[in-house]
Amino acid sequence: MIEKNTKEYNEFKSYYDSKASTLESLLRSKTFLPFALELLRYETVFTKHVPLGAPAATDFVNIFINPDDELFTNTNVPKENMLTFAYLHEISHIIFSHDKRGADKDIHLWRYATDYMINLLLRNLEYENKYWDDQHDLIVMNIESYKDKILFNESFKNMTEEEIYEHLQENGNFKKEESEQSYKDFLDDVGVPSDNVDPDSKIKVTKTELELDGKVEKKTFIDFPESERPEDQESKLEEDVSLEKTMFETNIMNKGFENAEFEKFLKKLFKVKVDWEAILRDSLLIELQKSSDISYGKPRMTWLVNPTLPYLPNYTEEEKLGTVIVLIDESASITDEDISAAVRVVQQSDSYYKNVYVIKHDTKVKWDKLYDKITEEDEEELLVRRHRGGTSHIDAFNKVIEFSKLPDNMISLVLSITDLFSDIQEAQKILPLSIPRIYLRSNKAYENINDIQGRIITIE
Predict the structure, then answer these.
(1) Where along the chain do the CATH 3.40.50 domains lie?
(2) What pLDDT does residue 42 have?
(3) What's the mean pLDDT in 196-209?
(4) Is the pLDDT score of 315 beyond 50?
(5) Which class would CATH give 277-458?
(6) Is residue 436's pLDDT more than 80?
(7) Which residue from 174, 69, 59 is spatially nearest to 111, judged by alpha carbons?
(8) Which range in 96-100, 287-291, 391-395, 406-410 is most confidently predicted, on average pLDDT?
(9) Mean pLDDT, the chain, as a whole number?
(10) Percent of the chain residues past pLDDT 90, beyond the cut
């Protein structure tokens, strides 16, 4: 938190004074309360040091707002209105899971698409809110008066982010210029404590231009180093965001709409689910990167001298790749299409592993095969069902241990495709804790997951 009565604080004291009333209004709003609840997780820092003078950015701990940007200085609306817009815009990216939904896309072109959608959404919500809330004056943004200063295009009205992205891909000319600056130096400049920040961590700054229909839009994107959160905290945050989105949907979809087309758009928007394949791909890559950091290669001499230190591979040791083990529970309710998609995700991560060991099981393992790499032809073989009985992971996990004991066999990750209606809580004791694991489940019917070690991803 930035300290009061510092130079950085006093320079924008009027904005800090307006912050409290803006948050209070959002919390009292019947329409925007779910956004306000998410917003409470973040500190706001007003500073002109946002890289390249961008109007706003977030490192997912703080929201940095630059009141010196022309969006604030050249807009003839009260600062409370601009703050309301800035807050709702930033939090909308989180409420609608834009990071996960954009995992397999050009990230900066995707951000253009999401900004276009959000700004149109907020304009239309502000209009409809006049009929929904008898205290609608609490939330005033006046977007119409500065829409020429933000990414705003009426032709994208009632289009989802994915639809806008596809249009930009087909019709836009896009270019970007990237640079870096020290994250620690930035926090020092804005007056935020940086004692625990790695001095080598960098902020990536990307200046972009998008030419569309003869008009050139310019935007600066700020990417902060990813903050490391404990896995249980990360899972809790995802659950809370999902709840807040559900609150928002429940709150407004039972209201009457002045604009019938906007109502249709919202129904379409709320049907958009986070792509489980994108989440799986992201999780799988993270686990593979983690395991290559802690498991492979000869240890450094410092570790040999003092083995109480965390294991560290030797800097000069050539990277050794391990095996991804895919367990397919053939009694489960996951479809052939889901299994095929999961296998493709593993296939796309081939730079991180040596080979793929597939184990198909019900209560017993009756089929397994080691692949150098999984090809499209192999997928057909993997979809042949070989079991029809009940479910247990004991024999499958024992097979994993057998594999690990063979010479030169290292395991990067165990990916289990299952509905979780199994004895995983007991069977998982067979595996050492050093083996990362991800469970891909078909639905949320099985809720007793608290004691399961590893990441659980639900297909939606």
Answers:
(1) 277-458
(2) 86
(3) 90
(4) no
(5) alpha beta
(6) yes
(7) 174
(8) 391-395
(9) 84
(10) 38
CB atoms within 10 A of CB 127: 15
